[in-house]
Design a protein that fits this description.
The structure is a homotetramer.
Chain A lengths: L8 E7 L4 H11 L7 E8 L2 E8 L2 H4 L2 H5 L5 E7 L14 E3 L7 E9 L2 H10 L9 H11 L4 H11 L2 E9 L2 E6 L8 E5 L2 E5 L3 H4 L7 E2 L4 E6 L2 E6 L8 E2 H7 L5 E2 L2 E2 H13 L8 E4 L5 H11 L3 E2 L2 E3 L12 H5 L2 H4 E3 L1 H4 L3 E6 L6 H12 L4 E6 L21 H4 L2 H8 L3 E3 L3 H7 L5 E2 L1 H4 L10 H5 L1
Parallel strand pairs in A: 14-24, 17-18, 17-21, 21-22, 22-23
Antiparallel strand pairs in A: 1-4, 1-10, 2-3, 2-4, 5-6, 6-7, 7-8, 8-12, 9-10, 9-11, 12-13, 15-16, 19-20
């Protein structure tokens, strides 16, 4: 799929850990693949929350003096991928509210709240004013409006949200973490020294040398208070359905979601694709980096050799200039190069994790052809993408999806591939084993009411 | 080996190609792995050379307006890795001289000239003054001192140089390219539209869609003039001996050096390591990115499954902060993470391309052990590094090399590995097939006189 | 006084003026002396408000593309001097609220609201949450809470504020401007083409070639709507008492406040100081830039020649390094130099506008002595500063004021001056002619209730 | 004249002074008015010279860590105004040469060498190559080519130069300073602690608290060696003729050149203008900052009151945007504002130091008229500028000078002034008292042969 889809965020928090801001910095660094546009950390010290945030990678936003100014043993952080419309500084997270009555509270959020418009309207009627368009601001207002202790208020606020989310809240020396009732967005906790860490993905724990972690269950609520973690739930949960795209593309291969390792899942998709595939081929290659695991799986199941057919340029930056139209057309060249020796004269199985618009896949097929591949058989380690996502993945309309507009044969023709196969949603679910999957973007089975977004589907 | 060794540079040039500076920009971008510290382009237009250069990646140094100011159909460019001592702005290449008598001349150079001190002394005696410590300045002065046409002068200058080098010279609407008589540093040419390109590595041609290229032979001299390329030699050449490290570590897998593809070479080293290796193991993993090809080769030859045992964080930047000593010790964690599912409870063959100081390898072994690997068998896809390099690789003393100070068994103990095996120099040469190799850093067979550097060895 | 005191802000707005953001940029540039820490512009287009703001000078925050993105014929802007505590990005103005119910509203504010803590508490109880500590956020919330049309709500909000302020509000295609009931902070309007401009100081109009302007009266309220300006008042006003420091130090000499030109006021203070001053002196000099007008006035009234006794270095930046303690002690040297020829061997009248801590004045006296001045008679063009200001000038405690701790004779001794004279508050009021002055920092006659700030005085 | 003319540089050096680089930083900061485009410092430590330089103000180029890296008790520095053509990094000074035979040598230079083309040709024939177009590179080559001790070689090199220059050379633990034989560019020395300082202007000494300094005489040569300063001359000198523009416009008023204080000189020009001026006027104003001294002199001599008629915006930066043509036309407004109260209804004497193109003066006259001035009598504190300068001031053609194309009456009409008077060259020389002046740009009496530049005059 290669740089066509974007996750919207990652969150990381520390509770009762010395120099919490620095540890959060490390955590965010490990979650950087979930968002490269902006980064922020809010640390609490004696009830006062200091926040630092800015555009750019975590390593660019924070330098030593900045980190040193963020005191305290509790901190929450956020990395963000921002779409054009929401790039305003007012939307960079965490978002903090200061109040002499309620104290400082900070919120960081990954996902999408589908009843956000409805909540915003209701809150405005009750007097809220919004300085940005971030869901976190809505959550802050909900927390403020409710009655009771901070924990009670955060829980009641959580119960008002519909959609996909993993949320961290910090205030009064406590930390709260909760996950949507469908378990769409991942969230895990881990013990660290005398405290805890909480993260969108477990890969951020491993950086600290922690390999034991627990998934926050769908609808689960974690209260970090008085030095301990108390687990509860804020609402009855449905059978968990993790966003399939987390496994397919977003998460790092070393992460574990709902007890299923991402690399293992991807290998399994490769194995399934290989099963019963009767194409005559010489080698299997994957589009780096996200499709390599599936390609290894395909290789193992088929017995065909795995090859490094494509090399990725590690220095591609956002400032890349493409002065001529010709160059723009062939922009993918700057990022991927075929290894001629690995594909020349061969019948190649090319594994890609998914197809969004199809333009990049088509260019890769042409690159391989140019490098001498005799036949190119494209195998997609997921089903046909047909529908938009309202749970935090930036597919906002059906029209942008080649799988919505074309049949598989038409797509094959467009890609100029010799053959093309996708997985079925059933096969995908099989690959996930014990973990339930949301496959709405493949088959329309959205697991929540869609509120105002349902219009998008009916168009 | 993972970020322990550094190549010193890469060069790229365009002759008779519209918007030569932009095309050179693309070329340098593909050579970025050869140097990330500084970047420069010198374009010639009507005999006038304009140069732009600065610290940082090519994409950061050049923006659209900068590129637009570099007019002309000829251009040469350079990417640089600079050691601490030579980071001065005066050393960023290309280096240009302006002269009303001889016109503008620009030089870009990759490698190391071993008789540089002797030449510098001689040139100073004849009146040269040096503003920096770059070899390119020496070459410029040699060109200026000689008699005859520019081509004659460049050729005579080339003949004075000893060592490892790939040099581009530009002036009078012409371009010249030459390579050392041992072929230590790679250099290739390719036809592009009505002109030519010349590059340290062929991967830069593929970005333009060119898969046909020719190696500049050892001692070869290319004159691009009057719209054509005229090949000659400036001195009798020895049997070519390409720097083994180019194949082992520096070059991109999709590059071809002396008709041998780098990926293929690396796979071959893996195969050789597997042959006769009687260790009982479950999986083969490679240290990303440079050791993956060798690991695939080992897997193919041994029949053991290839696995993604280590994941690399793609967002590691130079500004990374490591506030605690503990973190610094475990700095490798920020860059590499083990995939627990791939290694837990298993006996693992871990392929690395080479070992310099050993500190990183030791940390990786520990990471794998922490992630549950039962046994770790380290296989190095090259011989034991024992001696410094005077040909452009930044090993300047024997002392920094663990292979100089310890026996293989001592190294194994230091790495905390269950077993350890290296290749022999003979095996390495075998892997290179028809291409000759310089293996001086392994066995001391330096292919040139070492001049003042010979002292380093005798200490 | 020279860089010891700081004004807190300046505001500028455009109504019904093509390319309002660019014109606001010019206006802010002319108000830059009122705040150099941050700058922001909020432009309205079809009910939508876009805001751009950042740290730094107006010329650094806004470049052509940024300005071009701020469409619309209405805009308000702000320049800010931020104290250490409030330097957070969340406090940079204008502050904008987005609401589907009430539309977008932006607020920019200069001054200090003394009942801000009380209002904040009340608003929080009604459900407001604050993301920063800026008074503008309080004003936004007040506007939102009230009932009626936007104009009615802004007026009711204005009536709740106590203190010193000049406020601009923008929304629904309208602009509102109002000033505190004591007229402490200046605010003026001017016709420009088919629209209007409103500014903290009239110097910003002159940049546009407008020399006719009207003061917004104390308690006055301006409604810019339907292409016209409708003047009213939001509360009964007291006799106007402009902050004396505006005339003495902050405002530009070409500005007119309450029909009194600043330069003329300052000259008058010089004249008054000269009257009855029987010291024997040779020349009069002023500390640049703010004391030059008073020095000219003294020279005219006394008949003593005006001289350029001190030269200011125009390139002093905030990044200035002072490596040694000795240098730090003499930091004033980097900024001011005596003109030896103008003062050597002479008895010098040195005019300064005011004395805060006294450290800078003492250094200047030493500089002049060093340059050979025989006698130095310091004349301060204002009374002794004794008390803190709660109306927007950054004197927050009595203790920091040398005039609070010492008698005039003690100050003279500290300054090492041969004689020292201040003005009396009565003389200052006389200099202001028809304009009333707030002289609270000199004589304690605060013109508002001080709410929670009254504690500061009683300590 | 206001930002129309530019000096080309300033130099500052320290000999035998602890932390010489930091002290040089202070010195350059005081010379910043002589060049704001680039700044550099070269410090020597044990024979090794380290240079740091970059674009921008001294305070921006050097931060604490940079300064700390420049060790040693000797240092030379440079501030530069660079014309469009020469903005290349290769031209930023000081320029350093490294040589194993001759050691490191650094050169910094202010002025213009008129036989530079001839010298460059000669040096190229002898084998020199030039990486930039700076005169300093020529001087470095001359030094290298000569025979003898470093002092002898520097002296011989100095003797080859024709034109206007103040040059600092550093190497072998010594410092050398010399000035052209006509004394066109200023240069002074001063004792500081156990060492010496040398500077283009004496204002840089005063920052250190030093008021005693000595002019380096025309043709003078200073050798700082073995802890002492030895004065000599490198060639017979002519009667000194300091560039008149140094006194009129470039130098700071607190500087002393050839024993004449700049402020005093300027006051004298004002006095001379007043003598016999029979115009009926109410006030005298000066264009800030350079014409204020002359205005004070005119005021004293005429008895007319001196007024602050124009205020300068201190925050004008180079990034100022002028989006509309109308704004561009009125660009001067952003920088200068009239003080209406000071000029309204009055007959005004407006003193300006000189007129180059006349466009700015015309705009200022219009501003004053707009602000209500009844009559505007322009008095220029220098003669009519008619000819180009080849000695370091950026007037390169006659055509750009309004004084070359028009008579005084025509200029008056163009300026829309009620009357206009210039000084005569004789009057100017009279104002300089004992100091001789170069008045070539007024009357064509160039004090050197012009070599290739003589063509410019004959066109």
């Amino acid at each position: 799929m290669f740089d066509e889809l974007h996750e919207e965020c990652g969150v990381f928090g520390c509770y009762h850990i010395p120099d919490a801001a620095s540890m959060t910095y490390y955590g965010l660094h490990s979650l950087q693949h979930r968002g490269q546009e902006a980064s922020g950390i809010a640390a609490e010290h004696d009830g006062e929350i200091t926040v630092l945030k800015g555009r750019g990678l975590t390593v660019d936003v924070f330098r030593k003096p900045e980190l040193a100014s963020l005191e305290g043993v509790n901190a929450i952080g956020h990395v963000r991928y921002s779409t054009a419309g929401g790039a305003e500084a007012a939307n960079i997270q965490p978002i903090v509210s200061h109040s002499s009555r309620l104290g400082d509270v900070a919120v960081a959020h990954n996902g999408q709240i589908v009843n956000e418009k409805e909540l915003r309207r209701e809150l405005e009627e009750k007097g809220a004013i919004f300085q940005g368009t971030s869901d976190s601001e809505v959550i802050l207002h909900l927390i403020r409006m409710e009655e009771g202790t901070l924990e009670e208020r955060v829980k009641k606020a959580a119960a008002r949200l519909e959609g996909a989310f993993a949320v961290l809240v910090e205030g009064e020396g406590k930390l709260f973490a909760f996950r949507d009732t469908h378990g769409l967005r991942p969230l895990s906790t881990a013990r660290f020294q005398d405290g805890w860490m909480v993260s969108s993905e477990t890969c951020a724990f491993e950086v600290m040398g922690i390999y034991d972690s627990e998934t926050v269950p769908a609808g689960g609520f974690c209260t970090f208070e008085d030095g301990i973690l108390r687990r509860s739930s804020y609402r009855e949960a449905d059978a968990p359905r993790v966003c399939a795209m987390e496994y397919i593309y977003f998460a790092r291969p070393d992460s574990v979601i709902e007890d299923v390792n991402v690399h293992k899942f991807r290998k399994e998709t490769g194995r399934i694709l290989a099963t019963g595939d009767d194409v005559q081929a010489d080698v299997v290659i994957g589009v780096p980096d996200s499709s390599l695991s599936a390609a290894i799986g395909y290789s193992e199941a088929s017995g065909l050799p795995f090859e490094t057919g494509l090399v990725k340029n590690r220095y591609v930056g956002r400032t890349f200039i493409q002065p001529t139209q010709e160059m723009r057309d062939r922009g993918v060249r700057m990022k991927l190069s075929p290894v001629k020796e690995a594909v020349e004269g061969k019948s190649v199985i090319m594994i890609d994790d998914s197809i969004v618009r199809g333009t990049t896949s088509r260019r890769i097929v042409r690159l391989l052809r140019e490098a001498g591949a005799r036949e190119i058989h494209v195998r997609i380690a997921s089903p046909v993408l047909k529908l938009p996502c309202f749970y935090g993945v930036d597919i906002s309309t059906k029209e942008e999806l080649i799988g919505h507009r074309m049949t598989v044969e038409e797509i094959r023709e467009y890609l100029e591939a010799d053959s093309l196969r996708f997985m079925t949603p059933e096969q995908l679910r099989f690959a996930a084993g014990t973990a339930g999957l949301c496959t709405a973007c493949f088959d329309g089975s959205y697991c929540t009411d869609l509120y105002s977004y349902s219009e998008v589907l009916s168009n």
